[in-house]
Design a protein that fits this description.
alpha+beta; Pseudouridine synthase; about 25% strand
Amino acid sequence: MNKKDGSTNRNGSRPNSSRPSSNKPKPAMAKRAQGPKKAKPLTSDATSKQTTKPVKSAQNNVPKPLKSDEIRLNKYISNSGVCSRRDADIYIQSGNVKVNGEVITEMGHKVKPGDIVNFDGAVLTPERKEYVLLNKPKNFTTLNEDESDHRNVLELVRAATKAKLQPIGRMDKNTTGLLVFTNDTDMIRKFSLPNQKSSKIYQVSLDKNLKFEDLEKIANGVTLDGHKLFVDEISYIDNEPKTEIGLKLRTPNVKVVRAIFESFKYDVLKIDRVSFAGLTKKNLPRGNWRFLTEQEIINLKNV
């Protein structure tokens, strides 16, 4: 694992193209956790019974396609950034959504251009989905201004778009590195789930050298608050003191990184996220942001 240094120059321009390169820790003694075996698909030996009734034309069973300018109501609500499609369905069934002044409870209702959608008392305006990657510096937090005395990370990406961006996950003021912002509520929810598959790589600076036996123990998994946490990889960083550690996890909670080492009586001086679900800090100095490429967006959706 190589150490990445950041710069303070700011650059908010949209790049023509960008392909993230791997910045993963060098494989070491870490053991990859084995997940549960996938269940085999269920099969049925039941056969359909023959009937003398005439078979309907296949054309009658083909669902009527949506017109190009129509959109399903739950997707329209999700595009506005207020909630996910799943939550939108709940609001629709509860009678809290109106289209052109009429309460809609029908699932799959279609919205046409010019329709006025009222969601829980407010008129919605769908936004284009935006995805921004920030190399977060110190002294900025993801907490709301009312919850913290420190500056909010949204200040750093305010010039990127007029869309209402939200960070994926939380970071305290001392944690630096990659942070993704979007108004795609489905993606935010996806990366907030505890059983997600995406990996994050951290460079952790400790107050003293990490003992080899402790490194091996962490590699075999750590029990925190009664729950076993599996570590994908852990290693010393090449050409650095043994206080510099590379750690690869799937959990979306940055606080877990600090808790792992504190459980072995080490103080964490610094945490830097150098990779997030395949995205890296390549050509992105500290404090700068950029838009994700179309391919990077597709990759995130397919994780």
